[in-house]
Amino acid sequence: MTLEDTIRDLSHQLRSSERDDLRAAAVATGGAQVYADMGGILVILESGDVVCFDPDTSTILPVTDIRWRAVAIVHGARKFPALARLLPPRPTGAIVCGGSGTVFGNVTCGTCFGLGWLDSDGSTRQAE
């Protein structure tokens, strides 16, 4: 199954969500909602791009910050294992960052943004 097919199927499933905001995100974007907080709902589109949907204004904005893109992809892969193909490969020489990508059990790490590792120079460019 292609990424496009996977996202389309997930979006279709989310359109029947009991939560109005998740249903609205799926309908407005055609993508799969993977993460939500007070800033909005992160959605992965069929193209693999990440957007942020604001349920209060129905605004859809592209996610250009590589950190938030990493959060979306990591949460997407955890929520929907079929999206694991979007995870960047761990490079040779990567630095372990706690290993699991979370702190305090379930809070996304603010250093590796959920990946559990950093590039050998400590950067987060792996999420580009």
Describe what is shown at a glance.
With about 130 residues, this protein is of the alpha+beta class.
Walk me through what this model shows:
The chain has 128 residues and is α+β, with helices and mostly antiparallel strands. It folds into 2 domains: 84 residues, no CATH class; 41 residues, no CATH class. The strands form 3 sheets. The protein has a 4-stranded antiparallel sheet with strand order 1-2-3-4, sandwiched between helices. The longest helix is centred in the middle third of the chain and has 14 residues.
Query: What is the element string, with H for helices and E for strands?
Result: HHEEEEHEEEE
C-alpha-based Rg, rounded: 15 Å
**Main sheet: strand order:** 1-2-3-4
C-alpha geometry: globular
Mean pLDDT: 87
Number-wise, the strands total: 8
Low-confidence segments, ≥5 residues, pLDDT <50? none
Kindly list the characteristics that best describe this protein.
128 residues, alpha+beta, 2 domains, two-stranded antiparallel ribbon, 3 helices, 8 strands
